[in-house]
Amino acid sequence: MRTPRRNTVRRAGVGALLAAVALLTSAGAAVADDPSASASPAEGESAAPTEAGTTFRTATPVRQGQAATADASTGDYLYWAFPADSGQRPTVRAKVSLPESATRHGASTWQIDVYDGLRRRQACMYGHQTRKAAPDAGTVELSCVLRTVRAWSEPWASDPLPGTYYVRLTVVGLAEEDLGLPVHVETQVDPADQGGAHDVDGALAKPLVPGVSAVSAQGGAPAGSEPEDGWSSGWWTSRWLWTAGGGVLAALAGVFGYSLTRGGGRPSRVPPGV
Amino acid sequence: MIIRKRLTAGVCVLLATLAAGLGTALPAAADEPSTAASPKVELVLDVSGSMRTRDIDGESRISAAKQAFNDVLDAVPEEVELGIRTLGADYPGDDRKVGCKDTKQLYPVGPLDRTEAKTAVATLAPTGWTPIGPALLGAADDLEGGDSTRRIVLITDGEDTCGPLDPCEVARDIAARGIHLVIDTLGLVPNAKIRQQLTCIAEATGGTYTAVQHTDELSGRVKQLVDRAAEPVVTPVATEGAGSCSAAPELKAGLYTDRQEIGKHRWYRVDVLPGQELRASVSVAADRAVNNDYGVLLRAVTTHGREIVRGAESGTGRTDAVSTGLRYPKPEQDDTDSDVKPAAESVCLQLSNSFSAPPSVKTTPGMPVELTIDVVDAPDDAADVAAFGLGRGWWLLGLMVLTGLIAGLLFGWISRWRVAVWRTN
């Protein structure tokens, strides 16, 4: 049996290599295309999307914290995709602005579903995942708080893992006559960092991004498929601090305990003047 | 800037992969970007007699449609090849047989000459019948050829009364040709029957349905649909799963489509080397009226029939698709005398669904299946629950302090005792 620590060392080695290569190439690239650098941000990659996809395949990528909007018809299935990394607990919020109540014929029920990179449905811990809008309501607000994303889990578990997540928003119940009426939708994914409490051992070799094996062979990631500062290496966790801090405190306590057995000042049986 | 960062990241990943000597599986042809083929869109406009009705913002339906077309033609993205087809534009008579064949291509699918297209649209006058089915068939033929994404945008104000060709069945048959064609429908001032027919057409092809009450809604929506066609997407490769594992098609990493009938199994096969992880996800689309409770099951099975892992999902209520996925990391082989190349394991994937449909609903062609296969490096097994086996929290600190204190006291006492013994000697 291989020792896991050796694997960690190998992983760290690969990480270091990656970092070195990244440093070298980014330096080279920076020199190469400096003049165009000012033009690049204008491409609007950071601008919030104003459209939504209609299938998993066409899901519109959004970043966490971005407010994505879309105009759609009642009954459409709207899809967005966002990257979530280990240690995060994303909250998906959606606000649907309904058509004027004069044109509607009854109440409607709206729902958000969240799927992971393997298209497995992910549970919402809490939040209004499904909500009924009264016939005269102007908007309906939905939310879904996911479980904390873990760095690794067994293949038989459906724990949330780092990778792409899909949000699907749709109406699940409505008066037949209201199908096809225009709605306006706002969606936002808010990250919440959960700290070291959920840091588990192990890591995925690649995040759960669909098509990741094809992408790595082509040498480029599709837009919005990874977090702004890249996927975490899985090496850092605040548990290092806790454990090291515990070690220091234990050492101090040891010294203190030792000094207690020595007593304070001179030993009593040594005569004065020695 | 961001593009550069991404590129560098990509190059790094590639280099690192090579350097580490961990080759990834070659992607299937499915993954090559289809940037060369330009997306094709055909607008299908109803020019039947009823389009004369003046009930959209006080204008006639046809003039609203014409205005919307002008807006849309101005805004068509450069790369989109656009065509226009009409239905009911020519035959004003009462003969149903002739009237129901009345559909023709007004502007051929190809690079767009805006003025020419606009002139063609301006000549239209509401005339005849509403043969939606034949118009859809015609539009599908117009979009033939190439491997790009295709979209039909159908704008109508009346139901197809031409029978026996049910436009909904026509749409499903077109979708089953496997040419990635989506039909979006727009109903002008729809009633219950039109709505039902148009939602059925849209549902059958994975498209959308919109009810239009105002001119600006019409032009905005058509523009949005045309832009959607221009979005680059990965085109899936058609495959056909078999009834048993031994006959199953062998899939590489990539995106695939298939059709699955209600209650029938589909088998696929993927080769996985030791040290690789198989990731498979599948969506079965409900493209027809199905009963309210449904499910899908994807199992990874060895060639001997032992189940390795499964993904299952079930649901209830209105849905476009039900999907699930699984991953199977195959551990690296223990004996590392790597003279002999390790053999790949053939993993069988069994897909089954538990949809059911009312007896009136046709079950053939089967429901569209989308299958994503990825083969990546496998992760290492975790040796501990916590990261690197490290601890965390106040209990840990308390315990460590206590242990340290006790250890210090013990050492202190032992050394005092030894000094005392040494003195007495």
UniProtKB/TrEMBL annotation, chain B:
All residue ranges annotated as the VWFA domain in the record: 40-229
Tell me the superkingdom of the source: Bacteria
- Gene3D superfamilies on file: von Willebrand factor, type A domain
Biased composition of type Basic and acidic residues is found at 329-339
Give start-end of the signal peptide: 1-30
Region annotation (Disordered) ranges: 313-339
InterPro entries membership: CLCR, VWF_A, vWFA_dom_sf
The record's keywords, sorted A to Z, are:
Membrane, Signal, Transmembrane, Transmembrane helix
- Family matches, as SMART domains: VWA (SM00327)
Q: Name the coiled-coil region(s).
A: none
Give me the segments passing through the membrane: 394-414
Q: Cite the Pfam families for this sequence.
A: VWA_2 (PF13519)
Stored PANTHER family: CALCIUM-ACTIVATED CHLORIDE CHANNEL REGULATOR, ZINC FINGER (C3HC4-TYPE RING FINGER) FAMILY PROTEIN
The protein's name is: VWA domain-containing protein
